[in-house]
Here is the input.
Amino acid sequence: MRGVRILFFAYLFVVLLGIAYVTVLGVAGR
Amino acid sequence: MTARQDEYGFLRANALSLAFGGLFLATLVGQALSGVAEVNSQQVVDGLEPLTLLEYVTSSSFGVDVMENWQSEYLQFFLYIFATVWLVQRGSSESKELGTEGTESDEEQEVGRHADADSPSWARAGGLRTALFSRSLGLLMGALFLLTWAASSIAGWAAFNGEQLAERQDAVSWLGYLGEADFWNRSFQNWQSEMLAVGSMAIFSVYLRQRGSPESKPVGAGHHETGRTG
Here is the structure.
């Protein structure tokens, strides 16, 4: 189940990274 | 876990999430490439310099286009996960059996003293931990909906103000943008498609089958049978 857990957190990481990235773009007014 | 499952390597055992993760990245690249091409065709019409791909993918107009779609997907899953606890559809593979509406008993859900050796520790713990873990899937989808919707509003606000300034019109505050038609049009145009898709899945799976798919009833299952998958 170790590989499954890595995938779980990889998905969560990608989604949170996307949210943070787009928020930064907006706040920076780009 | 059976002996046969242990023989599965990482790729085969995780094929579903790996395949969709790969498709997500490929289609995101497709969105970036087609998006910059569309923006640049307008730049040429307006007599402006074309954007590089890097300039485009670091723009809030790309950001809002990505995030407005993410928010509607997480809204869809959040609503579907919670709605299917309480609402049923006779004959649908997506629904529980009629008469099982609600959060069900601790015995059925294997929580507290009904937990078995394989149960997650938070299913056994009781109290706040079990209450939280019992709703964790829906709560994560709901939290991701709120975060992606907020991010889409911030990037949408920056993109909107960019267009306002280009047209020599006044910029708006973020709160002002939340009252703009642009924000609500972006939200509703994504939401409506999700609601239609969910309703379609619930009702089409009553009379139609997909052999071998867990999203469908077994091919030979009766149309009236609710909640069977295979």
